Structures are given as C-alpha cells and as structure tokens.
Sequence to fold (191 residues):
Amino acid sequence: MPSSPCHRQRIAPPAQFTAVLLAFALLLQVPAAAWAQAGAAMDARRPAEVSQVLFGIISYVRWPMARPEVRVCMVGAPRYGAAIVDTPGSSTGQRIRVKLQPAGLAASECDVVYMGSLPDGEREHLLAQIIGKPILSVAEPGTGCTVGTMFCLRLADAQIGFDVNLDAIARSGLRVHPNALQIARRKGPQP
Fold:
C-alpha cells in the first residue's frame, strides 16, 4: 500500500549517533559539576583558613605588658566565628580565650577584637573606643575595612590575605613582627 503524501515516517537515528549525543551532553555537565564541587570544597575550607590567618597574626603581635592569655573577642556577626572558637589557641604557643562580646564592652575586656558584620555607626563607635589602646583589631573578610582597623582580612580565589594599617598599629603601642608586615605585602600567585 503506497503511503500518502501527508504521511511522514519517522526514522530513528542510528544508535551510534544517540550514544555520541549522550556522551557530549554528559561532558557539558561534568565541568559545571566539577566547578561546583571545587567551589563547595573551597567554601568548606574558608573558616579554618580564616582562623589560621587570625591566630597567625596574633602570634606576630606583642603587647606592652605580657599577658597570661590573649582574650579574643568576636563582635558583630562574624561569618567565620565558629571555626575561630573551635581552633585550639595553644597551637600558636599562646593561651588564647575566644568569646562573643558586645561591642560596647570590647575596650575593657579584650586584647583582640575580631570584627564581623556591624552597622557602620556601631563599628565607628567601637573603633573610637579602642584606637590608641593596645587592642589588636582585625576585620573579617567582606565586612569592609575602616580607617582605624589594624588588619583587614581579604579573600582571594585561592588564598586568604590581609592588609595592614601601619598608622593604627603605631598608635596602639602594639609591636608587630616585621614578618607579618612582609606577608601582608605579598600578592597572590602570579599567572
């Protein structure tokens, strides 16, 4: 029986063609999945890396009077606070006590102020209280570094670095080992 001109017959593509298309589609998905997985792994490592950098900075600082323990106060809403609390300070050779602290009490109860996210007015008030005192101030990555902060952590794709405010350090009476300043000057890996 002849087919009518309106009737179209569908021809299935050869099995090889279907297999090639399927393989190509999978290849397109693999890089996206690999990038997502690498990004998730980096995000999972960030808190520990921030904690390591913070305690590294503390190890390079000397206070005018020796302290039996360094009191680290986290103020505001720190994004990486849990990792800082969970990191044993004894690995730096110093006894370190970490606690959450209201910004208003930081000047009287802290040796180190780790600033998470704070409203601008509250941050300025906190800095006004601690500027000129032997209190190390460190701003968390992504919180915006203000004029009176001594160390400002910054995130790069592959590493965490920090910027240093030499004027704020000089006014505090703290001594910071030159190696910490050299580390701050280093840039990320060059292509």
Q: What stands out?
A: The beta strands are 61-62, 70-75, 96-100, 112-115, 136-139, 151-155, 160-164, 175-176. DSSP finds six helices and eight strands in the chain. The radius of gyration is 27 Å. The mean pLDDT is 74.
